[in-house]
Design goal:
Length: 603
């Protein structure tokens, strides 16, 4: 599914996404997906022994839903037959009108009290409700009927649908258009469109959620227990005041294949944030956020946990595409309140000038960032702090900015295979900073293109390898600030330095200089059978001899830069003598006898 991104013009993107979402949840697509009101209805868990039930004087029949064109029974008849076999009841048989004027709240409530699956047929207008409807079984919209909350004010009394303590084998909410009619204001934030608490096996799919004066979908505990095995997929979620999906207490949550348009920067689009408690009732573990299309003016995914004993655990954020101010944020609360976070294969377009794909300082353990593409136009870069052994690999950052990746107070960083383009400032494309020292890092096989400074160290770094990188820089390919003096950074000879910049700035701050380019740009160490006679060479380059034997020279050193430059042999193998050259060019071997006398021999 492709979309056209227009940075700075949210309306263009929303229009494009709405068109896609309409295709996703159109009547034909819904019916095709439903089959029997969804793959869900086809599951053995929901196919109850067949008998239909209606309210006194009512029936579940084709007069409500009609037939396919020409009066020939089609998919709708099949759906109705199977819904009948599931004991499904029609909310119209309980007095719902759906004319946009009549208050249908009590009709929905009375139908829900039966505990049977509910059928909501589409009308020419919409169903008007004024209070919360607690559903105890599945609810299926036929033709995408709209249910509107009248007078939503942000209070709990204006929640639209609620599911509490459901423990059955599967409850589906599908085929509905839920509209909270929020247009502005901040009187409250609790008028959710669908609130699910202390429940398991809930499937929310192929719906449209509009304008909640709270969350589109809320998962919580009511301080009883977390939701478990809950699924949100193939929905469209539009402009809630608070969150598109709020995960307050849940285990095993899937949020996938949705189209999300969030025009309010009050709370994150998907917020992972338990309530404060010491009981363990509010926990979040095992969340998958995958393959969503998003347009958020604020934060797409936020994680925060105020409960030190119960961390947010095992979050997988994969394959999402869209624009936001922040893609993932985890900066509040104690360090370590979220752990084991895998963020892979996402595409990010920054929506504002200071957009960041990542800002996280609270994921201490298990942070993995792989295969993401950051095409944001923001001047700010990634901010990753306080992580132990983070994995940052195979990402692409490809839009001009002042800094690409800042890694602070982290140890044992694995940073490899990243491509970073066009970072124009002294902060560096990759910046390792403190104030705490950093140790045990591997920075390898990254490609830095068109940078001002490539890799910058702003704190003491030990036991760190910089190897196999290709760095094009205008000023410094690798730079050690005064704060990094005394660092054990092993800058290996297999890095490739290009551009006008120096290979290593402040090379004297390094304990062990592993490459001659640290002091002389272009200086190299190589191997050959004979002294070179071609190519351009830099003074200080060494060529070690491969065809060696006793009394041979070890190799040659370039003493004057040029093409091929001036070379002198160095080192003799297996002889206890000193070789000296006279001012006229003659060479003499100087040896010492057992009595200490010096002997000179012309060579």
């Amino acid at each position: 599914m492709g979309i056209t991104m227009t940075n700075g013009n949210k309306h263009d993107m929303q229009t494009n996404n709405v068109q896609q979402a309409d295709n996703l949840i159109s009547r034909r697509a819904l019916l095709a997906t439903l089959g029997v009101a969804g793959a869900a209805l086809g599951s053995t868990a929901l196919l109850l022994p067949g008998w239909a039930e209606a309210a006194p004087g009512g029936s579940v029949n084709n007069d409500v839903y009609a037939k396919e064109p020409g009066g020939v029974p089609g998919q709708i008849d099949t759906i109705i037959t199977r819904l009948n076999n599931m004991c499904a009841i029609n909310i119209k048989d309980y007095g719902a009108v759906g004319d946009g004027t009549t208050d249908d709240t009590e009709a929905f409530r009375n139908a829900a009290l039966t505990g049977k699956p509910l059928i909501v047929p589409r009308t020419d207008a919409f169903y008007k409700v004024s209070g919360t409807i607690f559903i105890r079984n599945s609810i299926y919209g036929i033709g995408m009927p709209e249910i509107r909350m009248e007078g939503a004010d942000g209070t709990v009394g204006k929640r639209l649908l609620a599911i509490a303590s459901y423990k059955g084998s599967g409850l589906h909410v599908t085929g509905l258009h839920l509209n909270g009619q929020y247009t502005g204001g901040s009187a409250g934030e609790q008028s959710h469109l669908l609130r699910v608490t202390d429940s398991r096996h809930v499937y929310i799919h192929h719906n449209r959620f509009d304008s909640a004066y709270g969350d589109c979908i809320y998962f919580g505990s009511d301080y009883l227990g977390p939701c478990e095995d809950v699924h949100v997929y193939s929905n469209m979620l539009i402009d809630p005041w608070r969150c598109a999906v709020s995960i307050v207490s849940a285990r095993r949550v899937w949020v996938r294949d949705n189209v999300i348009l969030d025009g309010f920067d009050y709370v994150a689009t998907i917020d992972i944030e338990p309530n404060r408690t010491n009981s363990g009732s509010d926990i979040v573990e095992d969340v998958w956020i995958e393959n969503n299309i998003y347009d958020s003016v604020g934060v797409f995914v936020n994680s925060y946990n105020p409960n030190a004993a119960f961390k947010n655990k095992r979050l997988t954020i994969r394959g999402n595409q869209g624009q936001a101010r922040y893609f993932f944020r985890c900066n509040a609360g104690d360090v370590g309140n979220t752990e084991d976070v895998s963020i892979t294969d996402n595409i990010f377009y920054g929506s504002v000038g200071d957009a960041r794909m990542f800002t996280t300082g609270r994921v201490r353990k298990g942070l993995e960032i792989r295969g993401n593409r950051d095409a944001g136009t923001g001047g700010a870069g990634w901010n990753i702090a306080n992580a132990e052994a983070p994995v940052i690999c195979n990402n692409t950052i490809e839009v001009n900015r002042l800094i690409a990746m800042s890694v602070r107070n982290c140890n044992r960083i694995l940073m490899c295979g990243n491509t970073i383009k066009h970072v124009y400032s002294s902060y560096g494309a990759i910046r390792i900073s403190g104030p705490e020292p950093s140790t045990g890092n591997v920075i390898s096989h990254n490609v830095l293109v068109g940078s001002d400074y490539g890799i910058r160290f702003d704190t003491i770094v030990t036991d760190t390898v910089v190897s196999g990188n290709s760095i094009e820089a205008a000023r410094q390919c690798i730079y050690l600030a005064p704060e990094a003096s005394g660092s054990d950074v092993r800058i290996m000879p297999d890095n490739v330095f290009s551009g006008a910049g120096a290979p290593v700035g402040n090379a004297g701050y390094v304990q062990r200089l592993m490459t001659p380019e640290g002091l002389a740009k272009g200086a190299a160490v190589s191997w050959a059978d004979n002294v070179t006679t071609t190519g351009e060479w830099v003074r200080g380059s060494l060529v070690y001899r491969t065809d060696v034997s006793s009394s041979d020279y070890v190799g040659w050193v370039c003493v004057t830069s040029g093409t091929p430059g001036v070379w002198e042999p160095f080192g003799r193998i297996g002889e206890e003598r000193l070789v000296l050259r006279s001012t006229m060019g003659s060479r003499y071997a100087v040896t010492v006898t057992d009595t200490g006398s010096l002997q000179t021999t012309l060579l």
